[in-house]
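I have a small job for you when you get a moment. Would you make up a two-line entry for one protein for me to read? No commentary is needed, just the two lines. Write everything out right here, beneath this request.
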Amino acid sequence: MVPLTAVIAVVVAVIGAVTYVVGFRSTDNTAGAVAAAMAVPNSHAMATLEKQRAQLIAMSTASHTLSLVGQPKVASRKTSALPGASASSSSSSGPPVSPPNPGTAQSIAWNMLSSFGWSPQTYFSCLNNIWTRESGWMYNAENPSGAYGIPQALPGDKMASAGADWQTNPATQIKWGLGYIQERYGDPCSAWSYWQAHDYY
C-alpha cells in the first residue's frame, strides 16, 4: 500500500514541475505560475493521483474492519474426490466405498478387482481416480497420441492381448488395464500415487 505522504509528495512534485515548465516558457514568471497552478486541478495526472488517493483511503478504512473468520484450507489433488471415489484416494482408511451402479464400466471394474487379488473396498477409489482422469471411463476415448479406451493403452491395440473386441468392450479394456497396473505398479493405489506425481501412469 502506498503511504498517503508519498501521494502528497507526488502531487506537490507535479505542481512544481508544471509551474516550472509554464513559468520558464512565460516571459512573466508570475503569470506562468498562476497558469500552471490553475491547469493542475484539471490535468490527467492530477485526476489519476486523486483517484489513487481515494482508493488508498478506502483501502485503509476497509483494512480496519477485517477479521479472521476461519483457517484457510489448501486444495490438494491427492484428496479431491471424484464421482464414485471415496474421501481417501490412496488408502483403505476413510468411509466405505459403495459399489458403482450396475451396468456401468465402473461396476465391471469393481467386480473384476477381486480376480486380481485386490479388495474393491480398498482399491476401487484409486482406480476410479486414475481412469476418471484418463478417459472418463469411456471405452471409445481416444487421445491424439494414439492412447485408447478406458485405461488409455498406448497404442490401443495392446489391449488385443485381452480380447479381440478391445475397441468396443469395456470389460476387455478393464481386464487389460488391471493387468497393466498389476504388472507395472503392483496395485491401483500405487499406480494412483505415481499418477499424482507425474500426471500419467
User: Anything to note?
Assistant: The chain has seven helices and no strands. The helical segments are 4-25, 29-39, 44-63, 105-113, 120-134, 170-184, 188-198. Confidence is low (pLDDT under 50) at residues 68-94. The CA atoms of residues 21 and 36 lie 8 Å apart.
